[in-house]
Design brief:
Blueprint: H1 7-17, E1 37-40, E2 47-50, H2 55-60, H3 72-76, H4 86-94, E3 110-113, E4 119-124, E5 130-137, H5 151-158, H6 170-177, E6 181-186, E7 191-198, H7 202-214, H8 220-239, H9 242-254, H10 268-273, H11 276-286, E8 292-298, H12 302-311, E9 337-342, E10 350-357, H13 367-379, H14 385-393, E11 397-404, E12 412-420, H15 426-443, H16 447-464, H17 468-479, H18 485-489, H19 491-496, H20 500-510, E13 516-521, H21 523-528
Parallel strand pairs: 4-8, 9-13
Antiparallel strand pairs: 1-2, 3-4, 5-7, 5-8, 6-7, 10-12, 10-13, 11-12
């Protein structure tokens, strides 16, 4: 059936993207914003930024790319283990999945809480005199007040504008002087700031970060120009990228009554209305030690971190609790929903099908772990079901895979996607992809597929121990989205316990409903698109409030 668009969503899309071409202009929800390496994305049709990370981070965390809608890119462009671990990698090839089940993520890590409510996680790593220092706030774009989309990301920018003690960009200049690295990122569920420096500078980083936790100085002279910077960022990263536009609308269709349907970077008209008072109010409510997690990984001991944390962060007074993170449950709408976007800049068309599914925080039992393994079976490399059947056996795709966002605070996304081979229509490719998924749901997976998927995920846990920054991200992102330390540390044993029947049941339970389908077309595909593919504006009776 033709999907009748909720009137508010329709108005928003027309306001943001203007007139319609062949199909619907689309946009890409930003799941995290940060700096990364420039990499070719099969789903954007253009070149975009992808953060290089380890396999475990891609599977445990909510994902690492500029836009959550294109996080599937991380699965296509799989990043190998860290340099120096090739011998370990060879050893994993001969081992079975059970050999990795006893891995404890984080080694001999420890945790404690300061009197002001700041949670602290310490992950010792003595291999080099370096530390990664991260502060995570339990607030993201999904926590923004109605009509103020983009304020979480905007405040992230403003946090680099200085305090009385460290005015302007003093903080960043100091990090550069000592040869360190810094960055920050905003997602739907958290905002994080980090520095990587020599161990002797850890106390200094704590002092400066604690200072901007309570003493940020903002004026119109600072806020208004930075607002223009954010608007330009959106124009460059979203509005000028067909794949990003498609992903943004896909998310809006998946989460029509949930804040995950609003892009992290915000809608242009709402960004333009943000002001100094909005930023200060958001800062005062959420940037407090009792709403934050400090993660320190590297050449330190728990006692050293505790002493430094008490001397710096311990002096920051706790403020009123920001309130419960209560959001409406994402509703699965009936009927078939499709969106198609054509753009002459697209030289690599693609097809995506997505469902709303439970995350680790919302799933019953080990349901999320089963979905992780399902995603690995379907799209985990050249031996996966989708790649083998669509690319190798049938030759209808040049690449194919799947992506599951397991680490969200609320229900999240499961996606399958493919790039068509020459001569294959996007609709035909979509049907072929669903056929693969439906056979898994009805017939299950083989013992060999399950073992291969487990070994892939669990060996990633082994590789993660080689990266202090990856471990810091795993703990920070998981703890800010409802996870516990024990759940993180025991994740390998959770994966190892999943059976083939669990994976089959997950596919049947969560992917049986009709998906939201998105097509990204280049000039050639636009000419072949069905004439009635454009959506129609609904009558008032179909209005659904977000």
């Amino acid at each position: 059936m033709r999907y009748l668009w909720p009137r508010r969503l329709w108005r928003t899309l027309r306001k943001v993207h203007g007139s319609f071409a062949a199909g619907l202009p689309i946009s890409d929800r930003q799941g995290e914003t940060f700096s990364g390496d420039r990499t070719l994305s099969p789903l954007s049709g253009q070149t975009r930024h992808i953060l290089q990370d380890t396999p475990l981070a891609r599977r445990l965390l909510r994902g690492v790319s500029l836009c959550a809608g294109t996080l599937a890119i991380a699965a296509v462009l799989a990043v190998g283990p860290l340099a120096g671990s090739s011998a370990r990698a060879e050893a994993t090839q001969a081992a079975d999945a059970a050999a990795f089940a006893d891995i404890r993520i984080g080694g001999d890590m420890s945790a404690f809480t300061l009197d002001n409510g700041l949670e602290v996680v310490v992950i010792p790593d003595r291999r080099a005199p370096v530390v990664t220092h991260m502060v995570w706030y339990k607030v993201g774009a999904a926590d923004e007040p109605e009509g103020m989309s983009g304020i979480a990301h905007f405040l992230e920018h403003l946090m680099f504008k200085g305090t009385k003690a460290h005015p302007g960009n003093t903080f960043s200049q100091r990090i550069a002087e000592i040869g360190g690295q810094e960055n920050a990122f905003t997602s739907q569920d958290y905002t994080a700031y980090f520095q990587r420096v020599a161990r002797e500078h850890l106390g200094e980083m704590m002092e400066m970060e604690a200072d901007r936790m309570q003493n940020l100085v903002l004026s119109d002279e600072v806020v208004l120009p930075e607002r223009d910077v954010v608007l330009e960022e959106r124009r460059q990263r979203v509005d000028s990228d067909p794949g990003s536009m498609l992903s943004e609308t896909l998310d809006s269709m998946l989460f029509v009554n949930h804040p995950y349907g609003t892009p992290v970077i915000g809608w242009p008209d709402e960004i333009s209305a943000l002001d100094r008072q909005d930023a200060i109010a958001f800062y005062d409510r959420f940037y407090t030690p009792n709403n934050a997690i400090l993660v320190v990984a590297g050449d330190v001991t728990a006692d050293e971190v505790r002493k430094l944390a008490e001397e710096t962060y311990g002096k920051v007074p706790r403020r009123a609790e920001p309130g419960a993170r209560e959001r409406a449950k994402a509703q699965v709408l009936p009927g078939s929903r499709e969106v198609s976007y054509s753009d002459p800049r697209v030289n690599q068309p693609n097809m995506r099908k997505a469902w709303v599914v439970p995350s680790y925080n919302t799933a019953d039992g080990n349901g999320a772990a089963a979905l992780q393994l399902l995603s690995e079976v379907l799209g985990g490399g050249s031996t996966s079901r989708l790649y083998r059947e669509l690319v190798i056996d049938r030759g209808v795709a040049s690449s194919a895979g799947s992506w599951y966002n397991s680490g969200a605070l609320d229900d999240s996304t499961f996606m399958i996607y493919a790039v068509p081979a020459d001569g294959t229509g996007l609709e035909d490719l979509g049907k072929a992809s669903l056929d693969v998924l439906q056979r898994v749901a009805s017939d299950g997976i083989t013992a060999e597929e399950l073992e291969r998927a487990k070994k892939s995920l669990l060996s990633s846990a082994l590789y993660a121990q080689d990266s202090q920054s990856t471990l810091a991200r795993i703990f920070g992102a998981s703890l800010t989205t409802g996870g516990t330390i024990e759940e993180i540390r025991n994740w390998p044993s959770t994966i190892a316990a999943i059976t083939a029947d669990d994976v089959k049941a997950a596919a049947a339970a969560h992917l049986a409903s009709l998906p939201v389908t998105a097509y990204l077309r280049g000039p050639q595909q636009a000419a072949a698109a069905p004439a009635d593919s454009a959506p129609q504006e609904p009558a008032a009776a179909q209005e659904v409030q977000q």
